[in-house]
Amino acid sequence: MKISTQLSARDRISTLFDSNSFVEIGALVTRRSTDFNLSQQELPADGVITGYGVIDGNLVYVYCQDQSVLNGTIGEMHAKKISHIYDLALKVGAPVIGIIDCAGFRLHEATDALHGFGEIYYKQTMASGVIPQITAILGNCGGGLSVLTSLSDFSFISQNNGKLFTNSPNVVEGNFTEKCDTAAAKYQAEAGNVDFVCEDDNSVLEKIRELITILPSNNEDDASYDECTDDLNRLVPNFKAEIKDTKLALQDISDNNYFLEVKADYAKDMVTGFIRLNGMTIGAIANRTEILNGDGKAVETFDNNLTTSGCSKADKFVKICDAFNIPVLTFTNVSGYKATMGEERTIGTAVAKLTYAFANATVPKVNVIIGKAYGTAYITMNSKHIGADIVFAIDDAQIGMMDAKSAANIMYSDTKDASLVEEKSVEYASLQASAEAAAKRGYVDSIIPAESIRKHLIYAYEMLFTKREGRPNKKHGTI
């Protein structure tokens, strides 16, 4: 049932673009198939409106499925129109936005529709890492369309109207919609399959406009900057109090407290999103141990260990940033890996992928150690050992193999003298588990007061602005 916040296809396009800037392409294209009485049906634009327009001065291409035409189903020419938009966008280096509201394949056209769908997959693959791809789910997005969504860089879903599924809830073994609506926005967001959940069509389209303004147009564009009206030397006196909820810490250091969080409902122990420093878009990844409410009280807590979902969330985000030359910032506070039976099945592979993503990225990379940095989990979180350009630590950060007391207990396990173990624990903390010890060995570039973090980061990224870094000649990695 349609509700007041669900717009028509043309209204969606009008809302998305700057006033009177949309130019339609292929308005007269229609189906070739005449099977099953298709020739007797009018199919305006073959169920998808395609073209280009401007968002805050940025050229953007769009395809928007029209649910009023055969339920927005995809046929041969419908798919060809989408493929053509991709061809144009790749030629000029502009983002593609897909607005999905579709009942799936057009059964009347069968293999022609399948061929067209395959062409869309191919175009998306060729465009990956070259131009930003954004998908908005404003109606049904099922079956093969869910793959199309996952091939995009960023996906949005309307909480009121969007449905995302590979198999519908009623065909999932042992399930039905009333029991668990696996197609609902909340379910899919918590599973990590969408990046942004918004209330309705209008809020989705407004959020996409915001994202477009902070992203570069393509992988060779360096124009993702804005004028900075914030004080470049502004201190952040609350930073230490916000270290546990790093979403607040990232927001506090950013220009005018701007923060656009990505996958907010998934793997909440890892925060990912975009901030601005001196007008520059920065991709931020941070370990989190608490979620604080407006009163500063913890409403959800996590241990400071890497998890499979947290690593997967950060892994994709780092790769997107690297593909589009967006500098990376990490806040590290990690002491190991999550130790459960379930995690043991997957954590090794997930950590390897995140390690690879950080090590393989050639964009400017800055790491700030804000708490614990222990063992190989610390190495994974954008440490200098795998290629971070600059590493800061706040004055009470702990860096080493493990916490000092545990290390002393292991090294002096054959003694019963508790006072000796305590003495050696203090000694170990000073010699092998402090920020100062790491700095003396060159693993930390500077130990900084927590409140001065904003200005230190701005200076670091300004210095790294012209960074160039080569990689061995190879087709691609295998991780």
Automatic annotation (TrEMBL):
Keyword Transferase attributed: yes
PROSITE patterns (UniProt xref): COA_CT_CTER, COA_CT_NTER
InterPro entries, per the entry: AccD/PCCB (IPR051047), AcCoA_carboxyl_beta (IPR034733), ClpP/crotonase-like_dom_sf (IPR029045), COA_CT_C (IPR011763), COA_CT_N (IPR011762)
GO MF terms held by the record: propionyl-CoA carboxylase activity; transferase activity
Gene3D superfamilies on file: 2-enoyl-CoA Hydratase, Chain A, domain 1
Protein's UniProt keywords contain Amino-acid biosynthesis: no
Annotated TM spans: none
Domain CoA carboxyltransferase N-terminal: start-end pairs: 1-227
Pfam family, one: Carboxyl_trans
Protein's name in the database: Acetyl-CoA carboxylase, carboxyltransferase component
